[in-house]
Design goal:
5-stranded antiparallel β-sheet, D-amino Acid Aminotransferase, Chain A, domain 1, 2 domains, 365 residues, OB fold (Dihydrolipoamide Acetyltransferase, E2P), alpha+beta
Length: 365
């Protein structure tokens, strides 16, 4: 591969901000919930690289084929891999990060099967090189124009993300696109160059809080202190489900948490704990074993009596779980554990992801 820019290239990143930036000349686009992916094509040779510089090529053979068929013969394109679930009960297609995550599998036969059953789309949003020309030093507005020209006429499953310079439209997108599985907006100043690894863009995501049951914890790798809290919510039938973790504590706070949990630990806890004696063969979610993402990392946990309630911040749900690590806000001694149910969660209005990809008028009106 002999391109003006060759892999690996660390993608340019975005800095989190609490509100949509309003500076003059700002361009807004949907924040896709998938795998960041830079596509390198030099003739028949195609390489897909992740945000961390690892290859994704073997896991997404259908994307490699689409790159050969639809992107310029010699180019470097920054974008996102997404998987769309179309068999939802309400009939509206939405992004599904969990299905996308399952695409990372060591077995070649499984990779081939998943490429057929849950194929990925590629959403392009920046152009880093074309033919023999590197575009990193050019301002974003010019790179965007070159991207639109270079990918003019592409068809699904290859897309060019829609953009707007209108603040009112961006605010509407932020409100409605979450229902299609997207997780916010990205704002790009018109004059920024493409600087790998630098946070020159801005991102704004949805933030919410929920009251949850703390039903266990994991030890921190540094020693006998709390690493993460295991969180639960009750369903309508009264079953406690594991919905995620809260972590990212300071060293001092980890020691304090161990003291705060002491009264709820004990040798007798395991005998009645719902995650050790619940309906594990049914639909109940419980803390799991190491996955393809954690590798050999220990996910052993210690149960505590499910009597503590905490308020946590979260950005989105993935099915019945928190999409990302929840942020501990405070203890809620005024709340009863049984009151911590799924009913309290803010569920976005459902929206068709195909409309977002096509830029239909209904998505911008």
């Amino acid at each position: 591969m002999k391109l003006p820019i060759n892999p690996p290239v660390e993608p340019m990143l975005a800095r989190s901000v609490p509100e949509i930036p309003t500076a003059e000349g700002m361009t807004y686009e949907p924040k896709w919930d998938g795998f960041r992916c830079i596509v390198f094509r030099d003739g028949d040779e195609v390489e897909l690289t992740s945000r961390g510089g690892k290859t994704l090529t073997r896991y997404f053979p259908e994307v490699v084929a689409q790159a050969r068929a639809q992107v310029p013969t010699r180019c470097v394109v920054d974008g996102e891999l997404i998987v769309i679930r179309r068999n939802n009960p309400d009939g509206q297609p939405r992004l599904d990060f969990e299905l996308l995550s399952q695409r990372i599998h060591p077995a070649a036969s499984r990779v081939a099967l998943l490429a057929e059953t849950t194929p990925a789309d590629f959403v392009a949003f920046d152009l880093l090189a074309l033919d023999d020309e590197a575009l990193l030093d050019q301002p974003y507005a010019r790179r965007r124009a070159r991207l639109e020209a270079a990918l003019d006429g592409v068809a699904p499953p290859v897309h060019v993300t829609q953009i707007t310079n209108d603040l009112a439209t961006a605010r509407r997108w932020f409100e409605i696109f979450e229902g299609a599985g997207l997780d916010g907006l990205v704002a790009k100043p018109a004059e920024i160059p493409y600087e790998p690894g630098k946070r020159l863009m801005f991102k704004v995501k949805h933030t919410r809080t929920a009251d949850v049951v703390v039903a266990g914890f994991r030890w921190h790798r540094s020693g006998p202190v709390v690493g993460s809290l295991l969180l639960g919510l009750y369903d309508e039938a009264g079953t406690l489900h594991h919905v995620g973790v809260s972590a990212s504590f300071t060293a001092r706070r980890r020691r304090e948490l161990l003291d705060e949990l002491a009264a709820y630990r004990g040798a007798d806890v395991a005998a009645t704990h719902p995650w050790l004696h619940g309906d594990h063969a049914g639909a109940q979610r419980i803390p799991g074993a190491p996955s393809r993402w954690t590798g050999t990392k220990s996910l052993e946990w210690e149960p505590i009596r499910p009597e503590l309630v905490a308020e946590v911040g979260y950005d989105a749900m993935e099915g019945n779980r928190f999409r990302h690590t929840a942020q501990f806000v405070r203890w809620r001694p005024d709340r009863q554990p049984r009151s911590c149910t799924y009913d309290q969660l803010d569920r976005p209005v459902r929206f068709d992801v195909d409309q977002v990809l096509r830029g239909d008028p209904a998505a911008t009106a």
